């Protein structure tokens, strides 16, 4: 089996702290992660914690320029698309070498910004009916396409509640993979960042 490549096409204005943590996690887990369509100005200013992660590459070209010109190459790219008609299956590991994701933070309700990539005509596959964070979508894709475990056999945690202390908790409106410790798998530092953002939102009210 050819080594798989995981591409996130940068679609947001900035590269926020959440995305940085997600991308570090994706690079570590996959060992072959490309962040495409990164403006030159942003490429010069990417945080070292991300650029020094083995397996991470930043690409200024968009995925269409890299893979869209040659039909044979394009046919090996799979867009993970919440609106695709077909679910990702273990057999797709033989059909595709490159898995493409939208570089968009999750939103509730989802605004279907993956449509910006759908328009480019890559073959789409869905990872079930629930919105996942980008690093979760990559994790689930690897489990299905590389480990050959069907989507419905994966243990998920839907909309988990993160309990910060006795009084504070927040519900995450996404689907996660359940870790061996029974908790949702998240990037290192994410729980702390979510708590900080929640505290800031409360402070901003006053
Ligand atoms: N709310 C976003 C939208 O409007 O499209 C989805 C953002 S999601 C956090 C980031 C990326 O993860 C998507 O662009 C898609 O590639 C992938 N993704 C997340 N959940 C998915 C699902 N259930 N099926 C397929 N892809 C998914």
From TrEMBL:
Coiled coil: none annotated. GO terms for molecular function: protein-arginine omega-N monomethyltransferase activity. Pfam families: SFM1-like. It comes from the Eukaryota. This is Duf431 domain-containing protein. It comes from Ophiostoma piceae (strain UAMH 11346).
